[in-house]
Amino acid sequence: MLRRTFGIAAATTLAAAALTACSTGSTETDSADTVGTGSSASAGAQASAFPVTIDNANFGAVTIDKQPTRVAALGSQDGDNLLALGIVPVGVTKITWGGDGKGSTPWFEDKLAELGGTMPAQYDDSDSVPIDEIAKVAPDLILATNYSLTKQQYSQLSKIAPVIAYPGAPWTTSWQDSLTLDAKALGLESQGQQVLARTEQDVADAKAANPELAGKTFIWGALETTDLSSVSYYTPEDGRPEFLTSLGMVNAPIIEKLSKKGQFYGTVSAERYADLRSDVFLTYGEKAADAQTFSNDKLIGQIPAIKAGHLATFLADATALAGSSPDVLAIPYAIDHFVPKVVEALQ
Fold first, then answer.
1. Rounded CA separation 113/60 (Å)
2. What pLDDT, on the 0 to 100 scale, is given for residue 68?
3. Which of 62, 263, 55, 59 is nearest to 170 (CA)?
């Protein structure tokens, strides 16, 4: 079983761990008067950009009549996108996997400090979409561009404020599309293009600086010591493999063959482990000893890359999180901390 954004958790839907922020410490949300008072949308938005209509492919078109002033973020990318665009959200999802003691990330906190922003309210989406908590921050726009919503949840959120949802299948929105959608909804398309170009240049520079990644095949799976009878893997539509391919790596042919359109993960049973050929195998672990457990297991240990010693096991920390949920703020951190571990595993 995979968890959408990162790591190991008991959820076949891989519910997303959240990217959130906190600079003043509190994570309680009592009312819109006392929390979530971020600077919100103002930085350079053009009044002429409104009204703007965005096609929420799964839910129909939504029109934003005027410049938003209080923006709430859902999903793993929207909060970071907002800060990158110079906007402090009024609410973000709490990081429940891979975050720090404040339920946040170093890249979010650094950018928030750079902007001089106050702490957004944090809501926990571990169990469900935190509709009531979002309502408390009184947003006039809700961003959920890389997330999963039922029609009922979308309808409930839309009663609070216009919702910008994912354009395709849940959890398969690229960081580029997420940023572009958010920027358009905020009347900041020009700024969005600048951030996009800057981040893509960072990736291009990292690709040039790590030529040993070029052409190397990989499988990004989610092994669990409690059940080694099957292997879950992320498909090429998921953000993790997309980030690695942007650095010159290649999805293993077997994964390309097995992956189904519109799905971000799949599962392979034990009898096919020997078919999972790649130069490196990436996975998650709960503790450092898990890597040895995987290598020693008579079944998992037959996966060619693991058998050859090319296994990268990431624990629940910021490094794993940055590589698992790449976006405009996380990517520079991933380049500095995550990519070297992939390179090391290939050696």
1. 37
2. 95
3. 263
